[in-house]
Amino acid sequence: MSLVSIDPCKLNYSHWNVNSVSPANQAKLEKSLEKLGQFRPVICRETDAGLEVIAGEHTSKAMIARGAKSIDVYNLGRISDEKAKAISIADNRQWGSEDGLALAHLLKELEDQDLVEFMPYTEEDLTEIFSATEIDLDGLGFDEESDSDEKDLDDILKETVTHEVMRFRVPIQEREFITQVIEAVIRRKGLSDPDAMINAGDALVQICRSQGESK
C-alpha cells in the first residue's frame, strides 16, 4: 500500500460502481476542488490494465475536468474483486447517491459475509434493499410496437427533449399490479407514441394528476 501521484487520465474505472452524482453536485464537487484542492486521496487497486479506481471516481473525473495533470492516489496493491467491491460500498461519499437496484445486485455478491458487521447498513436496511425491485419502464411489456431501438443515433440527438428517465423502486409483490394499471391507462387514454417508455411515463403522469385532483 502506498500514496502516489498520477495523471488522472491514466486511471481506469470499475464497471460495478453503484454511486452516481447529479450534474449539480458534480459542479459543486469541481468547485470544492478549485477552492480547497484535493484533500482526500482516490482509492485504487492494481490490475493488469493499470490502476483501477475503487473509491473516488467522481473526484478523479472532476480533476480531469479541471485540467489537473496530477492526482493523489492511495494504491492498495493487488486485492480481490470481492474486497474491492466491499470497499467501494463501504466508502460513503458525500456527493453521490447509490443506484438502489445496482446496489442490491452488488450486495448479493457479498451476502455470504456478515454485511452488518462492516457495511454502513442495518439489518432493516438490507432487508429493504433486497426486497425491493425497480420499475423498469422499458421492460413492462409495452415495447411490442416500439421502433425506438431502430432510430439512428443522430436522429435521436436531433430530437427535442420532452421527457426524462425516472428510476424508483416498488415492492416486488406490487410489480404486476402496477404494470396492469399502467397498461390500462395507456389503452384508455389512447397513448400511442412510437416510444413505449414515453407511453408508460405519460400514463404515470395521468395517474398522478388524477390523484392530485382528487385531494
Description of the molecule:
It is a single chain. The protein contains nine helices and nine strands. It has helices at 23-36, 57-65, 81-90, 100-108, 115-118, 123-131, 153-158, 175-189, 196-213, and strands at residues 2-6, 12-13, 19-20, 42-47, 50-55, 71-75, 97-98, 132-134, 169-171. Helix content is 44%, strand content 16%. The N and C termini lie far apart (60 Å). A hairpin with a 2-residue loop joins strand 4 and strand 5.
The tally of beta strands, per DSSP, is: 9
The count of helical stretches stands at 9
Overall geometric form: extended
**What proportion strand?**
15-25%
Strand order of the largest sheet: 1-6-4-5-2
Terminal CA distance reads 60 Å
Structural class estimated from helices and strands? alpha/beta
The average pLDDT is: 77
Order of helices and strands: EEEHEEHEHEHHHEHEHH
Q: Mind telling me the CATH superfamily name of the largest domain?
A: Conserved hypothetical protein from pyrococcus furiosus pfu- 392566-001, ParB domain
Radius of gyration: 21 Å
Largest sheet: 5 strands, mixed
